[in-house]
Specification:
By secondary structure, the protein is an alpha/beta fold. Helix content is 39%, strand content 9%. It has 27 helices and 18 strands. Strands 4-5-6-7-8-11 form a six-stranded parallel β-sheet. The protein has a six-stranded mixed β-sheet with strand order 13-18-17-16-14-15, with helices on both faces. 55% of the residues are buried.
Length: 757
């Protein structure tokens, strides 16, 4: 490799350009399609500009001044500096010249020079020789291995830069073996030359894992884009299930670091794998940094995998207390996500659900004991990591002891620091010690760590600063005190804990200054991007902080193989049926669900009331579809028992009617489901009335807890009850097996508010 040529090279100077404004759309590229990608690439970077009205004039000659302007825009992250009236000494470039400051900046760096007569000739067309010279002065190229002989280069004053570019495949000759160094260059040709050099240098940086170098070739807009992860649920009023024009525009113009996928984006496993493959393919067309494609796949009530092994949920795992099962759960979840083209899972949930009145976490938590949450959380995280999927644990510093849902408001946790260390922070400390790669913040205020208040945009009141925007929490506590080295991602910015009190622009700037490195689900991604670019340009957000954050993101993408070429789409689709919902995965799902069945009340202290041969079984539920699911599973599990079943809807305030309808039943399954509301304010009166009626009639029955397992706190005199921690198919199938005597409850209640009998 030869030494870097030209004394005027930029060395370690970062080469940036562009801004967060929408790229210019050109309508006159029909006859320059060979250069269209390059022109659009540079337009998206903010490097090239047209003449207005959608005209780029691709066949027009690029002047020396224009060429310098294009390169200068690639060099300055915060805008080209203003030049003084005496900065340029060329007699034909007065301060009034439209490209005066660009020429001044380039001349100061030794990128360009004038002629012996003191002129610069800014309006003269640039030649192919000058193009090679300009570009090799601006970029630290080294000699490559390609040996292309160009017959008319030897005697050119630009022979060395032409050969240097040619050796790297960045320029080519004509069919007769000439380069024609004195031929003028069109605007389209210059765009292609410049794009080739930028892309080449970026590819070299990626190949060498030189993230500092790659950063130096990323525009400020692009760097900030890496820190944004929008959702893509809807476009033009329809769910996004394919790579449409709206998505293409976002990828090419905003350069996002990734996307989060939701139910609305999913039709089937094949469709989802096709969508994720298409997203990455579109990103390859736009650039060279792969997307994070993330999803909430906790299992249980929070599930996304179509036809997959969705598992019984985290509290069900908590009831088993089995770290081995938790690791298996994480591993199989990761295997299925990776097969679908998803590399980032916003799980496991490390919140310690110590408050029965928590309206949003509940059974999404492993339990109320910080040691249990730590053990199972780390094991699940380990399983995900083994499968090559990033675990983003949540919600730091802890969402388990709140009575406000941060989707709907701003919770405040008033515990002192000693309590936070003993409970809420303990699982996160364990995760950090085990090498967690990503942590999600909570939109919750923690006055014991940061008692700062700010003025709410909602009503002008004084509100405490949430962890997502607190430098004391994210940088002081998480980074410096707890020693976290990975990527910090926010919870969704569409949640009211953020959206109601802080405008999008203020919120993203505060969050990034606090230490957030990826903004999840900004309400208006383009607005968020412009806000951050502007904040860097005016010094509100230090550019060094952006560099540090983006470097962590790039390192994490590399760590999990995102820069490597993956399988073809056809190969991915062919393997789906062997992975998604495989027999081995289903066995783990079944084992967890059955091991989780927990006795809440039993006449013998060991079992719920049992269903017997020939019983007439009534299933009473406020959810008829749920009751029918249980009925079907009961018919399968109890096929040899000759059971007769019927479904009775429990309407609000109509418990007496339900009791009258079960007179003929021998056995009653009464379902209970409390989740996404406050347990103490839930309408337990119907459940209490039903239990009292069943006791009075001396019926065999079970109060079947399908949600948060807090029934025993609010319903008295229950004689028979089990908890299965979910109303999904594996949970209810396990419940039915326990009721027909095919398995004994083994689970241990993982919340301390109740005591296992």
């Amino acid at each position: 490799m030869s030494a870097v040529i030209a004394a005027g090279l930029l060395g370690s100077l970062c080469l940036f350009g562009g801004n967060a404004a929408a790229a210019e759309k050109f309508t006159d590229l029909q006859h320059a399609l060979w250069a269209k990608d390059s022109i659009e690439y540079l337009s998206n970077r903010g490097t090239v500009a047209g003449y207005g009205g959608g005209r780029f004039n691709p066949d027009g000659a690029v002047t020396r001044a224009q060429a310098v302007a294009f390169m200068a825009r690639e060099q300055y992250p915060l805008g080209i500096p203003e030049a003084g009236a005496d900065a340029v000494h060329y007699k034909d470039v007065p301060p009034s010249h439209p490209f005066y400051k660009e020429i001044a900046a380039a001349a100061a760096k030794g990128l360009v020079g004038g002629y012996a007569d003191g002129s610069f000739r800014p309006d003269a067309p640039i030649t192919r020789a000058e193009t090679a010279a300009f570009l090799t002065r601006a970029y630290a190229l080294e000699a490559g291995k390609q040996d292309k002989q160009l017959s008319d280069v030897t005697n050119s004053w630009a022979a060395d830069p032409i050969r240097l570019m040619s050796s790297n495949g960045l320029i080519g000759g004509y069919s007769d073996g000439t380069y024609r160094p004195n031929r003028t260059v069109t605007r389209a040709e210059f765009s292609v030359f410049l794009t080739r050099v930028i892309r080449f240098e970026r590819e070299e940086a990626i190949e060498a894992k030189d993230w500092d170098k790659l950063l130096s070739y990323m525009t400020l807009n692009e760097q900030v884009g890496q820190m944004l992860m929008p959702d893509i649920r809807m476009w033009n009023g329809k769910p996004t299930t394919t790579v449409h024009d709206g998505l293409k525009a976002i990828i090419h113009e905003q350069a996002p670091g990734g996307f989060i996928v939701f139910d609305k984006n999913i039709v089937s496993a094949k469709q989802l794998a096709t969508l994720t493959d298409g997203l990455q393919e579109e990103e390859r067309k736009a650039g060279d940094i792969p997307l994070f494609l993330g999803v909430d796949q906790e299992g249980g009530v929070i599930q996304r995998i179509p036809g997959g092994t969705n598992l019984p949920g985290q509290m069900a795992l908590g009831a088993t207390g089995d770290e081995g099962l938790a690791e298996q759960a994480g591993k199989l979840t990761g295997e299925e996500l990776k097969a679908l083209g998803l590399q980032l899972n916003f799980a496991p949930d490390l919140d310690v659900n110590s408050n029965p009145d928590n309206p949003i976490i509940g059974k999404r938590s492993f339990g109320s004991d910080s040691d249990l949450v730590s053990r199972l959380g780390v094991a699940t995280m380990k399983g995900l990591k083994e499968s090559g999927v990033i675990a983003a644990v949540k919600h730091f510093p802890g969402h388990g002891d709140t009575t406000v849902d941060s989707h709907l408001g701003l919770p405040v946790l008033m515990h002192d620091r000693a309590r936070l260390d003993a409970v809420e922070l303990r699982p996160f400390k364990a995760a950090i010690a085990s090498g967690v790669d990503m942590i999600m913040t909570a939109h919750i205020a923690f006055p014991a760590v940061d008692d700062t208040h700010v003025t709410s945009l909602k009503d002008g009141s004084s509100v405490p600063i949430p962890a997502t925007m607190s430098r004391k929490v994210l940088t002081g506590l998480l980074r410096e005190e707890l020693g976290f080295k990975g990527v910090i991602i926010s919870d969704a910015f569409t949640m009211k804990g953020i959206a109601e009190h802080f405008g999008e622009e203020q919120a993203v700037v505060r969050a990034v200054n606090a230490g957030v490195e990826i903004i999840l689900m900004p309400k208006e991604p383009a607005v968020a991007q412009r806000a951050l670019v502007t904040a860097v340009q005016n010094g509100t957000v230090p550019l060094d902080n952006i560099h540090e954050s983006v470097k962590r993101i790039l390192e994490l993408k590399n760590k999990y193989g995102l820069f490597s070429q993956g399988e073809s789409l056809s190969a991915k689709l062919a393997s789906l049926s062997k992975i998604i919902g495989s027999d081995d995965h289903r066995k783990v799902e079944k084992t967890i669900a059955e091991r989780a069945v927990t006795l809440l009340a039993g006449r013998d202290g060991q079992h719920p009331d049992q269903i017997r041969q020939g019983d007439r079984v009534a299933i009473v539920s406020a959810d008829v579809e749920q009751a029918k699911q249980l009925e079907n599973q009961l018919k399968q599990a109890g096929a040899s028992l000759a059971l007769k079943t019927n479904v009775i809807e429990l309407k609000p305030g109509m418990a007496s009617a339900a009791i009258s309808a079960i007179n003929e039943a021998d056995y009653v399954i009464a379902t209970s489901y409390q989740f996404r509301n406050t347990a103490s304010q839930f309408n337990w009166s119907d459940t209490q009335a039903l239990v009292e009626g069943l006791n009075k009639l001396d019926k065999r029955y079970v109060l079947l807890s399908l949600g948060n397992p807090y029934e025993m706190l609010y319903v008295n005199n229950v004689k028979s009850s089990i908890a299965v921690y979910g109303k999904e198919l594996p949970n209810t199938a396990a419940a039915v097996r326990a009721l027909v005597g095919q398995l004994a409850p083994q689970g241990v209640l993982p919340v301390a508010a109740l005591a296992t009998p």
